[in-house]
From TrEMBL:
PANTHER family: UPF0502 PROTEIN YCEH (PTHR38768). HAMAP family: UPF0502 (MF_01584). This is DUF480 domain-containing protein. It comes from the Bacteria. Belongs to the UPF0502 family. Pfam families: DUF480. It comes from Photobacterium alginatilyticum. InterPro entries: DUF480, WH-like_DNA-bd_sf, WH_DNA-bd_sf.
């Protein structure tokens, strides 16, 4: 695949894909809004602390790759806003279904994901009935006629599910990961800790939804 995003580029693109769906009234995003989105503490892994200059440099790099375009906020406005042209636009040859686009968005924002994680973390981007449907979406991206766009990773020691990783940041060394996965993990997570982690993730998602609703309310009343 010709595309190879850096970590910052993947984060910026993932944010644009996400906000296009979750906060359409605020999309395209200003540089300030895009920086805030990149540095969110929920639904991001790793959590970053990028300044506007770094985000702007990343935007310029993506503009050079024709992945992002700049648009004006309105007639007579000097405020620049940014929107992606990565997929599902007249400018891109990449065309994904809504669940495929949502799954790729989450992987760009969070790295490798299991089907269960994809099903939970795409709840604001699309509707997936169950884990089997999420797995079917991921396998479809892995076996896509114009892809592959994702790869199935070796199962980690102590983990129940396989994870998938997008291939827009280069090839994945599956042999090295398989060797690493074969090493036993001391103190692997228990079912109880997994349930706690899931609850924490759901709480974080709810907090982010509340924060975005507050932003939208402030924009409407300003």
């Amino acid at each position: 695949m010709d595309i190879c995003f850096s970590q910052n580029e993947a984060r910026v693109l993932g944010c644009l894909l996400e906000k296009e769906v979750t906060t359409p009234d605020q999309y395209p995003l200003t540089l300030n809004a895009l920086t805030t989105a990149c540095n969110q503490k929920s639904n991001r892994d790793p959590v970053m602390s990028l300044d506007e200059a770094t985000v702007l440099d990343t935007v310029e790099a993506l503009k050079a790759k024709r992945i992002i375009q700049e648009v004006t906020a309105g007639f007579g406005s000097r405020v620049a806003k940014y929107q992606h042209r990565f997929c599902n636009t007249e400018f891109s040859t990449l065309q994904f279904t809504k669940p495929e686009k949502a799954a790729l968005c989450v992987m760009l924002l969070r790295g490798p994901q299991s089907p269960g994680e994809i099903r939970t973390r795409t709840n604001r981007l699309c509707d997936l009935a169950d884990v089997k449907e999420a797995e079917a979406v991921l396998n479809g991206l892995a076996e896509h006629s114009k892809g592959p766009y994702v790869v199935k990773l070796p199962k980690e020691s102590g983990k129940r599910d396989f994870r998938y990783m997008h291939l827009f940041s280069g090839e994945v060394d599956l042999e090295a990961l398989a060797e690493q996965a074969a090493v036993p993990v001391v103190g692997s997570s228990s079912p109880t800790s997994e349930r706690v982690a899931k609850l924490e993730e759901e709480v974080a998602t709810m907090k982010q939804e509340i924060a975005e609703l507050k932003e939208l309310l402030e924009s409407l009343t300003s």
